[in-house]
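Table 4 source record.
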Amino acid sequence: MKHSTNRRNRSAERAGEPFLCAHCNLAVPGDAPGTEHRNHCPRCLWSLHVDLRPGDRMSGCKGEMEPIGIWVRRDGEWAVVHRCTRCGAIRTNRIAGDDSEIALMSLAVRPLAAPPFPLDRLVISRAAEKA
């Protein structure tokens, strides 16, 4: 179920405010362990394109941000990669302590489930066979 732009915009205008997920309809608390700016749903990982910079709520787009991947930062911290379904912008958002572990792992292994080549093309080298 989609929500009107006005309702979504009002709930997304203020950082730290609770909001209703525009994708799965979950009532999401405004704060989360491990992050200063809650910017995605902990259940489905979808977000809204509301920020130009983290927490500023200055983007005029307001499109839904689809989670498309996981990025592991140099320090080992995970971030969700989002792509705006309206304007195509790509953003990363650090994960929060209450994010669904199943949703995060499903997103992380997605490339393994759909490789860009047939798996029968994989060839095991002789050195790997001996190991």
